[in-house]
Write a structure and sequence with these properties.
Elements lengths: L5 E5 L3 H13 L3 E5 L2 H10 L4 E5 L1 E2 L2 E2 H11 L4 E6 L4 H9 L4 E4 L4 H31 L9 H14 L5 E4 L6 H10 L8 E5 L5 H9 E2 L11 E2 L1 H4 L4 E5 L6 H13 L1 E2 L8 E2 L3 E6 L3 H6 L5 H7 L2 E4 L10 H11 L12 H9 L5 H16 L11 H8 L2 E3 L2 E3 L4 H19 L4 H8 L3 H10 L7 H7 L1
Helix pairs in contact: 1-5, 6-7, 13-15, 13-20, 14-16, 17-18, 18-19
Length: 466
């Protein structure tokens, strides 16, 4: 029997709203029915719905705008649109943006119940697939490295969005791993066996980016000595990752918009359209809304790219993941046939204190730099890049004296935390041995670790497991 679903029904005609709600409730579903957009906004603010059924034409607002808002905030919610014959084009466009279905007035309540039943069956299958994926994850690590709440939510969001074919816009500072996220979306999708093609729009001059995307025929321009298929054609059936989309010139943006609308490209030098089946994943470190306000990016293209979106936090906002990342890079960047390097407490303290404007990419390069200079032995402060080591060595003056100089209680806590980390590092994370080394009970050690946020499942334990 299909599961019971939580449904939000929005229609401004009381008779239709009441009859549809009654039909859905008779089928065993939990229904919240409202008559206008403000009521709908209030409802979704209070709970997450499995399905939203909304009329496109609503008083005091737009059903299409509400649909886009729901897709943005809760991508897992299925949306069915109700439309009159005059608005069918809007409904079809919404299907391309991720709506699950649409119904044209007039229709019977039984028809809506059938559509909801199909959604319920699909959700059961989705849950079974998710359970299978969890079993796979238990034996093989997937997703981005990190156990902080932010990264757990991000990995869950990636896995959810991988099941869709809708375009995804990835935002975040340079070095946060936007291409890695794009590859994960592809690898966890139904297109995993097809090509993943990446193009960095900032790497090509304005005169060549169009040819790079769409391809060209021989003689299309001076240097076109032979025909070449573009990145869209190369990615046919798979995923095209368009990095640094903010760097695409406006004329090419207009042509790209037509491709996304029609699903066909026209290589330069020909007027013959070529159909392509590609999922678009785009990325940028720039603020596209600011680019739109400055007339440097098309608003309509932005909404085509931004059906679903993922924001990757900078490394400085997830410091708890630093030991995991350090442990990962120490293991994966060590020379073949050699044991991974270890990290001194001074080097770790310098890494922990550094803000990493270059994010995970900068951390990776710093560890690689240190492994080379340390010749595979213990990495100390002098082996780190000067930006990191220098900031750790630079004295700070407080009231004319060299610092930093903290209150005694603060300094004592900092020393104790660092000493606990060193003990765990010395014993490879074995807490019983660390407690014996420190001369305290295991229970006392656990309490101290919990107090410093390095307790069970925390950074030190995760690093030790690696």
């Amino acid at each position: 029997m299909p599961p019971k679903l939580n449904i939000l029904l929005i229609d401004d005609e009381p008779a239709i709203r009441l009859s549809l709600a009654a039909a859905l409730e008779a089928a065993g579903h939990d229904v919240v029915a409202v008559g206008d957009l403000p009521g709908a906004v209030e409802a979704v603010a209070q709970r997450v719905f499995d399905v939203v059924v909304t009329d496109i034409n609503l008083p005091r607002g737009s059903g299409m705008d509400f649909f886009r808002s729901v897709r943005h905030e809760t991508p897992d919610t299925d949306v069915i649109l109700i439309t009159g014959h005059a608005a069918i084009d809007d409904a079809v466009a919404a299907l391309k943006e991720g709506a699950r279905d649409y119904l044209t007035k007039p229709f019977a309540g039984e028809e809506l119940v059938i559509r909801i039943a199909h959604i319920a069956e699909r959700r059961v299958l989705k849950e079974e697939l998710a359970a299978t994926r969890c079993k796979l994850q238990a034996t093989q690590e997937r997703g981005l490295i990190g156990r902080s709440p932010t990264m757990v939510r991000l990995n869950d969001r990636i896995m959810t969005m991988a099941e869709s074919d809708a375009p995804v816009l990835i935002t975040g500072e340079s070095g946060t791993g936007k291409e890695l996220v794009a590859r994960l979306l592809h690898e966890q999708s139904a297109r995993a066996g097809k090509p993943f093609v990446a193009v960095n729009c900032a790497a090509f001059p304005d005169t060549l980016i169009e040819a790079e995307l769409f391809g060209h025929e021989r003689g299309a321009f001076t240097s076109a000595v032979r025909p070449r298929e573009g990145r869209f054609k190369a990615a046919d059936g798979g995923t095209l990752f368009v990095d640094e989309v903010a760097e695409i010139p406006l004329p090419t943006q207009a042509k790209l918009l037509r491709v996304l609308q029609g699903g066909a490209i026209e290589p330069i030098g020909t007027n013959t359209p070529v159909n392509v089946n590609v999922r678009i994943i785009s990325a940028t470190h720039r603020n596209l809304k600011r680019q739109i306000a400055e007339a440097r990016f098309r608003e309509d293209l932005y909404y085509r790219f931004n059906v679903l979106n993922i924001h990757i936090p900078p490394l400085r906002e997830r410091q708890g993941d630093l030991p995991l990342l350090i442990g990962y890079f120490l293991n994966h960047l060590c020379p073949a046939g050699k044991a991974p390097s270890t990290l001194s407490s001074r080097a770790y303290a310098a890494l922990a204190a550094y803000p990493f404007p270059g994010n995970v990419r900068e951390l990776k390069h710093a560890i690689e730099h240190a492994i080379v200079l340390s010749r595979g032995q213990e990495i100390d402060l002098e082996h780190l890049p000067e930006d990191i080591a220098g900031s750790a060595r630079a004295p700070e003056k407080v009231n004319g004296h060299v610092g930093p100089f903290h209150p005694l209680a603060t300094a004592t806590k900092e020393f104790e935390r660092e000493y606990l980390l060193r003990a765990l590092e010395r014993t490879s994370g074995k807490k019983s041995e660390a407690a014996a080394l420190l001369g305290i009970s295991r229970k006392n050690l656990w309490e101290k670790l919990r107090g410093y946020g390095i307790n069970n499942g925390g950074p030190v334990e995760e690093m030790a497991r690696r």
